[in-house]
Design brief:
This protein has six helices and no strands. It has one domain. With 191 residues, it is mainly α. It is globular, with a radius of gyration of 18 Å.
C-alpha cells in the first residue's frame, strides 16, 4: 500500500468523537462568554443549534444504534440542553416568552446538575478523562447556579473557567480518538 491509497473498511464507527468534539467546542465558546472574555452573540447561538443540538442528536442516534446507553443518554440529553438553552435566549427576543429570571436559570441548571452528577457516577467506571469531563461539568453547573442565586459574578466567571476546561477535555478526547483511529496507533493517550 502506498501513502496515497485509501483503505475503505466496513467496520462499525463510533459516533462518540463527533459528539465530544462538537460538545467540547460549544462548551468552550459558551464558557468564554461566562468567563467574561467574549459576548453571548450569534456564533454561540448558531453553534448551540447546529453543534449542540443537531450534531449531538445525530451522535445520540448512532450511540443508540451501537447499544451504548451512556453515550445515548449523555449526547441525547445535552443535545436538548443546548436546544433548550438557545430557546431560553431566543424566545424572549421573539416575543414568545418572558425573559428568564436569575432564579429561573438557577433552577434550569440545577436539573442539569443532577443529571451531570449521575453521569459522573457512571464515568467513574469509564476512564479518567471522562471523569475529568463530567467532574468539571459538575463544577461548572455548581458555579453557575451559585452565580445566579447569589448574583456574584465571581461564581459565573469561575464557572466559565471550569467550562473551558470541560470543553477542552471533551475536544481532546474526541480529536485524539480520531487521530488514533486514522494512524491505527495511540499517538494521543486516552486514559
Amino acid at each position: 500500500m502506498t501513502q496515497n491509497e485509501v483503505i475503505i473498511a466496513n467496520k462499525p464507527l463510533s459516533p462518540t468523537p463527533l459528539g465530544l468534539c462538537t460538545f467540547g467546542m460549544l462548551t468552550v465558546l459558551l464558557s468564554l462568554a461566562n468567563a467574561g472574555i467574549i459576548g453571548l452573540t450569534s456564533p454561540i447561538i448558531a453553534m448551540g443549534v447546529f453543534c449542540g443540538g443537531i450534531a449531538l442528536i445525530i451522535t445520540a442516534w448512532f450511540e443508540w444504534k451501537n447499544s451504548n446507553l451512556f453515550g445515548f443518554v449523555t449526547f441525547g440529553a445535552f443535545a436538548f440542553f443546548w436546544l433548550s438553552f438557545i430557546g431560553i435566549l431566543t424566545l424572549p427576543a421573539l416575543g414568545l416568552a418572558e425573559p428568564a429570571s436569575a432564579l429561573d436559570l438557577a433552577a434550569f441548571l440545577f436539573m442539569w446538575l443532577l443529571l451531570a452528577i449521575a453521569l459522573l457516577i457512571c464515568a467513574l467506571r469509564l476512564g479518567y478523562l471522562l471523569i475529568g469531563i463530567m467532574g468539571t461539568l459538575v463544577i461548572l453547573f455548581i458555579c453557575l447556579i451559585l452565580g445566579y442565586v447569589t448574583g456574584t459574578v465571581m461564581f459565573t466567571t469561575l464557572g466559565g473557567y471550569a467550562g473551558i476546561i470541560t470543553g477542552l477535555l471533551a475536544l481532546y478526547v474526541g480529536a485524539a480518538s480520531v487521530v488514533n483511529d486514522v494512524y491505527q496507533k495511540p499517538l494521543f493517550p486516552l486514559f
